[in-house]
């Protein structure tokens, strides 16, 4: 989240699978965590995009 907060653009184009690969994790884990962030209002998830709120 800290890295996203420093970006000038509030939307990044990346899939859950791509993000998981970058983080050395699995897509399932990344998707679960992103869903939690979405429920807390921190991000909005779109197909192939993550928007910081």
Compose a concise summary of this entry.
By secondary structure, this protein is α+β, with helices and mostly antiparallel strands. The chain has helices at 2-5, 16-23, 27-39; strands at residues 11-13, 43-46, 49-52.
Structure, described:
The protein has 53 residues and is an alpha+beta fold. The protein has a domain at 19-46. The protein contains 3 helices and 3 strands, in the order αβααββ. The chain has helices at 2-5, 16-23, 27-39, and strands spanning 11-13, 43-46, 49-52. Strands 1-3-2 form a 3-stranded antiparallel β-sheet. A hairpin with a 2-residue loop joins β2 and β3 (49-52). α2 crosses α3 (27-39). The protein starts with a helix and ends with a strand.
Q: By helix and strand content, what is the structural category? A: alpha+beta
How would you classify the quaternary structure?
single chain
Could you list the spans in which at least 5 consecutive residues all have pLDDT below 50?
Answer: none
| Order of adjacent strands in the largest pleated sheet | 1-3-2
Helix content: 40-55%
Order of helices and strands: HEHHEE
The number of helical segments is: 3
Cα-to-Cα separation, first versus last residue: 11 Å
Mean pLDDT: 90
The overall strand count is 3
Determine the strand fraction and express it as a percent band: 15-25%
What would the principal axes of the Cα set say about the shape? globular
Largest sheet, described in full? 3 strands, antiparallel
Radius of gyration: 10 Å
């Amino acid at each position: 989240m800290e890295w996203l907060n420093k970006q000038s653009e509030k939307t990044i184009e990346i899939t859950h699978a791509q993000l998981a690969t970058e983080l050395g994790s699995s897509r399932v884990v990344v998707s679960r965590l992103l869903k939690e962030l979405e429920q807390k209002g921190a991000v909005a998830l779109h197909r192939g995009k993550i928007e910081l709120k």
